[in-house]
Design goal:
heterodimer; A: 139 residues; 4 helices; B: 78 residues; F1FO ATP Synthase
Chain lengths: 139, 78
């Protein structure tokens, strides 16, 4: 199987799921608490979503066993980028955002991490199951 | 106040060290697994993606806490 024929996993759906969860959650926080908490949670969530999307885009640029070393290289650069983007994102939020509710920033971040883990597992594992079931059905 | 900056530096450095070790081990196993069973490479890549997301979550939260310490708790020092 050539690397080009391996379909790309639906990583964009994970980012879309995160955004689809983040925005309504922040609206709920706005209604339940106040604007400051909602905006802080939104910023915290964005700090989680953007670096993760960058890392996923870098990691899945190359596919297939022959590209294993290239995958490892792109994973390294993606991880460095993710780390830097997260650090810069947190710094920007804590410098620019006033008034700020720090607990809401971290709550938004952790919530997006949970959504990312569950969403990735759901989308990617379900796709793998489909791929493994398809050849059996053909036989 | 200097202690706050030292705490932030320790948070970032130890967090980065832990993430580096974890991702390095994951990447090594990815290459090793892909070499042993090339047909499993796409699956391993997806598992790597999931594992990497979990491994670097805690260090990045540490970085976030360090940024909070630097820019909110001790803003005059930064």
């Amino acid at each position: 199987m050539s690397a080009n024929s391996i379909p790309s996993p639906p990583i964009h759906r994970v980012a879309l799921l995160q955004l689809a969860t983040l925005v309504p959650s922040c609206l709920l926080v706005w209604l339940a608490l106040d604007e400051t908490a909602a905006v802080s949670a939104l910023c915290g969530g964005a700090v989680a979503v953007v670096p993760q999307a960058w890392f996923a885009a870098k990691l899945f640029r190359a596919r297939g066993a022959r590209s294993a070393s290239e995958i490892a290289r792109s994973a390294l650069s993606g991880e460095i980028g993710k780390f830097l983007l997260s650090a810069v994102g947190f710094a920007a939020v804590f410098v620019v955002l006033r008034p700020l509710e720090a607990a809401a920033v971290f709550a938004g971040y952790v919530a997006m991490l949970i959504v990312q883990t569950i969403g990735s597992w759901w989308f990617l594992m379900r796709r793998q199951q489909k791929q493994t079931e398809t050849p059996k059905q053909e036989l | 106040m200097e202690l706050v900056l030292i705490a932030a530096a320790i948070m970032i450095s130890l967090g980065g060290l832990g993430a580096a070790i974890g991702i390095g081990m994951l990447g090594g196993k990815l290459i090793e697994g892909s070499a042993r069973q090339p047909e499993l490479a796409p699956k391993l890549q997806v598992t790597f993606f999931l594992g990497a997301g979990l491994v670097d979550a805690i260090p990045i939260i540490g970085v976030g806490l360090a940024m909070y310490l630097i820019f909110v708790v001790a803003p005059g020092m930064a």
